[in-house]
Design a protein that fits this description.
Protein name: GTP cyclohydrolase-2
Strand content: 15-25%
Structural class: alpha/beta
Distance between the termini: 63 Å
Function: Catalyzes the conversion of GTP to 2,5-diamino-6-ribosylamino-4(3H)-pyrimidinone 5'-phosphate (DARP), formate and pyrophosphate.
Enzyme class: hydrolase
Strand order of the largest sheet: 5-4-3-6-2-1-7
CATH class of the largest domain: Alpha Beta
Organism: Franzmannia pantelleriensis
Number of helices: 17
Cofactor: Zn(2+)
Largest sheet: 7 strands, mixed
Shape: globular
CATH superfamily of the largest domain: GTP cyclohydrolase II
CATH topology of the largest domain: Rossmann fold
Radius of gyration: 23 Å
Number of strands: 14
């Protein structure tokens, strides 16, 4: 991978440790500081010259116009100059970044983000942090001091355009790492193949069920995003665990195929942010609104890794087990022919009803059958 790619990978890990990174283009150097783990003393050092960079989804929650956030292709960010926001302690900064209440006066101060600031937001999302960052444009003595710290190896300098493109950096570059036979309760002849993305942060597993020479010409396929709470612990807040096990059973009954277990917890926002979103849902928000309060879109997942894994397995035609039209569109955009869609449901319960209804009504998931069946049963009981 090019040197700039290595720098992006290193920057992701520095940011996850709370270490600032410098983003540079031809004219500008910007210091970016992740909000997570920020100490009050560090805020005091940065506040006079700093801006808070947020997504257009977050700007809409604050009460601003999200269309103003379309500042650059791929990453849509806005800048809030902190010097204009009045007295600001760490608690208020966190309310600005991911609090549930609007802040229309602060939102009115929003300005289009620079290339470097767009890169900052992209890196936060890639690092699975809250998509908000403190940024300081470095000039004069501050830039010289930053360059000295970069030269000493204390801070990392990254090309701003490379940071913006960090979501594309893994395309076509998955590494097949290891595999083993793993007999499953519903599919005894199964094999797990692990693939790793180049930044080392995400690993995906292809669960190969049965023997390839016995598969149908259009291979039964499930794209399953990892869900620790549902898959492992049987959480009632979603139907993920039941969908996972039903998919394995269905693929086995269809003569075998593949389940891709993708490291995309919480529709791509990561486990920490998913738990934050759950807390917001306990306060009355649905799953879509909770993600947007945190600065995320309706669905942050990408399926480039799935396309690459299918390529490595020499699969071009599939029967897709899904209720999500976006998965069909993403595979087809990657050159995979989706011959047929098979519905895949878990059970509806009092804890996941609102979640599934929001997915159907606001995200276009095809769940009418399971939701309508529950409604019909309720009516029959009256």
């Amino acid at each position: 991978m090019p040197r700039t790619g290595h720098h992006v990978e290193r920057a992701i890990f520095d940011l996850r440790r709370g270490v600032p990174v410098v983003l540079q283009d031809a004219d500008t150097a910007i210091l970016i500081q992740p909000l997570e783990g920020l100490q009050a003393s560090r805020l005091g050092e940065l506040q006079a010259d700093a801006s808070l960079v947020v997504s257009r989804h977050r700007l809409a929650v604050l009460g601003g116009d999200p269309e103003r956030g379309r500042a650059a292709p791929g990453v849509e960010a806005m800048r809030l100059p902190l010097g204009s926001c009045g007295p600001l302690d760490l608690a208020r900064l966190e309310r600005l970044a991911f609090g549930a209440q609007p802040e229309p006066r602060a939102a009115a101060l929003a300005q289009p983000a620079s290339v470097g600031e767009c890169g900052a937001l992209a890196l936060m999302r890639r690092a699975l942090l809250i998509p908000a960052a403190l940024t300081v444009t470095l000039t004069g003595e501050a830039r010289e001091l930053a360059q000295a710290r970069i030269a000493a190896g204390e801070w990392l300098s990254v090309d701003a355009e490379a940071a913006i493109g960090c979501f594309d950096s893994a395309a076509g570059m998955l590494t097949r790492v290891s595999d083993a036979r793993i007999p499953l309760a519903d599919a005894p002849e199964s094999r797990f193949i692990l693939f790793r993305e180049p930044d080392g942060l995400r690993e995906h597993v292809a669960v190969v069920i049965g023997e390839q020479h016995d598969w149908q010409p259009a291979v039964p396929l499930r794209l399953h995003s990892a869900c620790l709470t549902g898959d492992l612990f049987g959480s009632l807040r979603c139907d993920c665990g039941e969908q996972l096990r039903n998919a394995v059973s269905d693929i086995e009954s269809m003569g075998g195929g593949v389940l891709l277990y993708l490291a995309q917890e919480g529709r791509g926002i990561g486990l920490a942010n998913k738990l934050r979103a759950y807390t917001l849902q306990d306060g009355g928000l649905d799953t879509v609104d909770a993600d947007q309060v945190l600065g995320f879109g309706d669905d942050e997942r990408h399926y480039r890794a799935a396309v690459d894994m299918l390529g490595a397995l020499q699969i071009q035609r599939v029967q897709l087990l899904t209720n999500n039209p976006q998965k069909i569109a993403s595979l087809e955009a990657g050159g995979i022919e989706v011959v047929e869609r098979q519905a895949l449901y878990g059970r509806l319960n009092d804890h996941n009803r609102r979640y599934l209804s929001a997915k159907a009504e606001r995200a276009g998931h095809l769940l009418d059958d399971v939701l309508h069946a529950d409604s019909s049963r309720s009516s029959a009981c009256k």
